[in-house]
Structure formats: structure tokens, C-alpha cells
């Protein structure tokens, strides 16, 4: 269902577990993607100084028990420690749940699958379409390294990655967006994660609606980027988010770490990501990996 359609015309495919995501299954075709056995972590380290939207709760870690104080509750010689961690479901490397973005029709906000947002919102979070419904994600992944085809280390500020750019990456990097594929897009803005967080947050490059539509039409079931917003920063509009999440049920992964994978020249791989089952959350922390 598009932003210009009325509710009532679209339903999720019965074979899918959560939006576009399938039931997890390791197939011989997926195993054939593993050639060298090298594992790449695609997660950024979470810390209080990491780039983050002002509207979101900041990441914080507070020790709650120290080893020195643990003798009060533990029997010597053993000691222990633990902490309290607070953060948004959209802090650091994370995946957007299907309740994260919706579309307004006739004064009512609808989520993916024609679900009225008000019917599943509660003071304890969402009672439907939350992050706890993510399956384990084990799929074919491809990397589209856009700076590589442009001959630069990082795309210009607020550069729109076009369909032509995506197709040129496919051609020159020897991969294709096919049904069942996770598509990871490198813009090069990862290089600003520590050095210039404000520019990282407010000036990042990415696709817009045309690019998102092309990926979906080719069969992409998950997409992500090395930026905080996935699509080119276009506030207050989020056309790619609304199309991918609301209309097609395609989750988005943001703040990926893709430079090491790109440097290896690995453009096709086994992609594994395990969202945390935060009940009712609009997003989940994520540690995705690529196995080449």
C-alpha cells in the first residue's frame, strides 16, 4: 500500500515471518557463499560519545555492583560486577522494527499491513509489530560500495544515491540485487563516526524513494547503510523509510561499519543478524556479521 492509497488493498505474504523477512533457514545456496570463512563484524561500538539524534535517550552505562562491593552478596573468594545500561532502540548499529514508521490516512496513522497505529500503541510499547517479532536473519548479502565507483573515499554531503549508481555498483562489483537479498550500501560517512559526529548525523548521503523502490522491485528483503538515517538526510520527510518499512515491510539497518568489508573487496557474502527481542520496541540493537 502506497502513501497515496487507502487502507484495504495490501496484505503481507503468508510465507513471510515478519514483513519481507522469511523464516530463517540455512540452505546449500547460502553455504556456498562462504568461501574464505572470514568473518566481518559490521557493528559500531556503543559509547556515550557516539553520534545520536537529540530526540533519543542518550546511551549511558552506570556500574551497579563493583567487584570490591560484591562480597556483600557473594561468598568469597568469588567476586562479581554488573551495570545498568540505558539507550534508545535506535542507538548505535540497530534495525528498525515495522512499528517504527507509518503513514497517515484520513487522520489515522497506519503501520505495515494496514494496522492502525493506535490499536497497537501502549504505555509499555507496541503490542504488535515490535522488535520481538524479528526472526533470526540468515540471508544472502551484497555490498554496494558507491564511493568505489565514484573514485572517492566518501560521497559528497547529502548526495542522493541514484538508481543509476546502484546499477553501476552491481555491474562493476559483480553482484546483483536478487530476491531474498540483504543490500548494504556504503557511502563512506562511517569515517566521520568519531571525528565529526554532527556532520555524520546531519549531512549524510543515501538513496531516496527511487533507489528504495528499485531495491524492493528487485527482491531486496532488508537494506542498511553506514549512516544514521539510511536515506539522504531529508527532514522532515522520510520517503524511503515510509516506502520500505510501511509499504513493503523491508527493515532498515543503520550505523553499519562497512569499511573493512569494502577494503577486502567482498561484495557478496552470508549475512547474519540477530535482533534482540525487546518486547514492544520500535528498534533493536544489532550485531550483524558478514561471512565471506
Question: Could you describe the 3D structure shown?
Answer:
This protein folds into two domains: 25-47 and 89-291, Glucose Oxidase, domain 1; 53-87, no CATH class. 18% of the residues lie in helices and 26% in strands. It contains eight helices and 20 strands. Strands 3-20-18-12-14-16-17-6-19 form a nine-stranded mixed beta sheet. A three-stranded antiparallel beta sheet has the order 7-8-9. A two-stranded antiparallel sheet has the order 1-2. β16, α7 (239-247) and β17 form a beta-alpha-beta unit. α6 (209-218) packs parallel to α7. The longest helix has 11 residues, at 163-173.
Name the descriptors:
alpha+beta; Glucose Oxidase, domain 1; 2 domains; nine-stranded mixed sheet; three-stranded antiparallel sheet; 20 strands; 18% helix; 26% strand; globular; disordered N terminus
Strand content: 25-35%
Q: What is the residue-averaged pLDDT?
A: 94
Helix content: 10-25%
Question: Uncertain runs with pLDDT below 50, 5 residues or more?
Answer: 1-12
Which CATH class of the largest domain is shown?
Alpha Beta
User: What would CATH call the architecture of the largest domain?
Assistant: 3-Layer(bba) Sandwich
CATH superfamily of the largest domain: Putative cyclase
Order of strands in the sheet with most strands: 3-20-18-12-14-16-17-6-19
Domain unit count: 2
Amino acid at each position: 500500500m502506497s502513501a497515496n492509497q487507502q487502507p484495504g488493498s495490501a496484505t503481507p505474504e503468508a510465507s513471510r515471518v515478519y514483513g519481507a523477512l522469511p523464516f530463517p533457514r540455512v540452505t546449500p545456496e547460502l553455504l556456498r557463499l562462504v568461501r574464505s570463512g572470514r568473518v566481518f563484524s559490521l557493528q559500531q561500538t556503543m559509547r556515550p560519545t557516539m553520534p545520536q539524534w537529540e530526540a533519543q535517550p542518550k546511551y549511558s552505562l552506570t556500574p551497579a555492583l563493583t567487584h570490591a562491593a560484591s562480597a556483600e552478596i557473594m561468598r568469597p573468594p568469588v567476586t562479581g560486577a554488573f551495570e545498568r545500561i540505558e539507550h534508545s532502540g535506535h542507538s548505535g548499529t540497530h534495525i528498525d522494527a515495522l512499528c517504527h514508521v507509518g503513514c497517515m490516512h484520513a487522520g489515522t496513522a497506519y503501520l505495515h499491513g494496514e494496522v492502525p497505529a493506535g490499536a497497537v500503541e501502549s504505555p509499555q510499547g507496541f503490542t504488535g509489530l515490535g522488535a520481538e517479532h524479528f526472526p533470526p536473519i540468515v540471508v544472502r548479502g551484497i555490498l554496494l560500495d558507491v564511493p568505489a565507483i565514484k573514485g572517492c573515499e566518501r560521497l559528497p554531503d547529502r548526495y542522493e544515491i541514484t538508481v543509476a549508481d546502484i546499477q553501476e555498483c552491481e555491474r562493476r562489483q559483480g553482484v546483483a540485487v536478487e530476491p531474498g537479498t540483504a543490500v548494504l550500501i556504503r557511502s563512506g560517512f562511517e569515517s566521520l563516526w568519531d571525528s565529526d559526529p554532527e556532520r555524520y548525523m546531519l549531512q549524510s548521503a543515501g538513496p531516496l524513494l527511487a533507489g528504495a523502490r528499485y531495491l524492493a522491485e528487485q527482491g531486496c528483503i532488508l537494506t542498511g547503510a553506514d549512516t544514521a538515517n539510511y536515506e539522504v538526510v531529508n527532514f522532515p520527510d522520510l520517503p524511503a523509510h515510509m516506502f520500505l518499512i510501511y509499504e513493503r515491510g523491508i527493515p532498515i539497518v543503520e550505523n553499519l561499519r562497512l569499511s573493512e568489508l569494502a577494503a577486502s573487496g567482498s561484495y557478496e557474502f552470508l549475512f547474519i543478524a540477530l535482533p534482540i527481542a525487546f518486547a514492544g520496541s520500535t528498534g533493536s540493537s544489532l550485531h550483524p556479521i558478514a561471512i565471506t
